[in-house]
Amino acid sequence: MKVAPSLLSCDFAKMGEETARIDKAGADMIHLDVMDGHFVPNLTIGPAIVKAVRPYTKLPFDVHLMIEHPLEYIDAFADAGADIITFHVECADDPDKTIERIKSRGILPGIVIKPKTPACAVFPYLDKVYMVLVMTVEPGFGGQSFMLDMMPKVTEIKAEIQKRGLDVLIEADGGISEQTVGETVKAGVDIVVSGTGVFKANDPAKAIAFLQNAV
Ligand code: DX5
Ligand code: ZN
């Protein structure tokens, strides 16, 4: 299992140092949650902050766009140093165009679904994306409870990927900790995002290692 700690739970006054700290603790990539106050009822960071944090680690930046118009901002996040950009299938822009724009910048595209969106919503894009992100909480805030009932969706998407002989990763995001990671492994998740579970742990290295080795 790969682990992507979410900076949403870090000390925002020290984002650079926090990124370096979690890199040293053994993270596989860094998850950055971008919120616009429209698509979700919260505001977080934009491209300027992503760019400012970029020099603090060489790990891939997994940028999760919870914004209404991702297409308008792909170039800005590409310039800021994103390696993976995921956007929601429920957004206002055309997913095909958005995927194309991400790819044109040499970045790996991913598509995200909210808890109420069925698995089949991502099927038209499976042959074009690097990953599918299945939300295991309502997007907007860290520290919420893991929704176990999202696991059948992971299994369904995984089965479709295998049926078509594709090589697409599945990421899960929200409420993932030592208590819940086992369920994601069982369902076939490849990458877990963890905010609170890593940044608020007494020993983040131990927390990351636990998630990485979960069975
Ligand atoms: C929620 C974000 C998640 C969140 C995860 O909208 O997409 O990345 O920060 O945080 P935890 O692990 O605390 O649920
Ligand atoms: Zn996220």
- Mean pLDDT across residues: 98
Indicate the multimeric state: single chain
Number of helices: 8
Instruction: Give the ligands present.
Output: D-xylitol-5-phosphate, zinc ion
- Kindly provide the name of the CATH class: Alpha Beta
Count structural domains. 1
**Rg, nearest Å:** 16 Å
What is the H level of CATH, i.e. the homologous superfamily?
Aldolase class I
Largest sheet: 8 strands, parallel
Strand content bin: 15-25%
Helix content, binned percent: 25-40%
**Termini separation:** 9 Å
Largest sheet strand order: 1-8-7-6-5-4-3-2
Q: Which residue ranges are poorly predicted, with pLDDT under 50 across at least 5 consecutive positions?
A: none
Overall 3D geometry?
Answer: globular
Can you describe this structure?
By secondary structure, the protein is of the alpha/beta class. The protein has a single domain, classed as TIM Barrel. It has 8 helices and 8 strands. The protein has helices spanning 15-24, 47-53, 74-80, 95-104, 151-163, 181-187, 196-199, 204-212, and strands spanning 2-5, 30-35, 61-66, 84-88, 108-113, 131-135, 169-173, 191-194. An 8-stranded parallel β-sheet has the order 1-8-7-6-5-4-3-2. Strand 6, helix 5 (151-163) and strand 7 form a beta-alpha-beta unit. Helix 2 packs parallel to helix 3. It is globular. The structure holds D-xylitol-5-phosphate and zinc ion (ZN). D-xylitol-5-phosphate is lined by residues 6, 8-9, 31, 33, 64, 137, 139-140, 142-144, 173-176, 193-197.
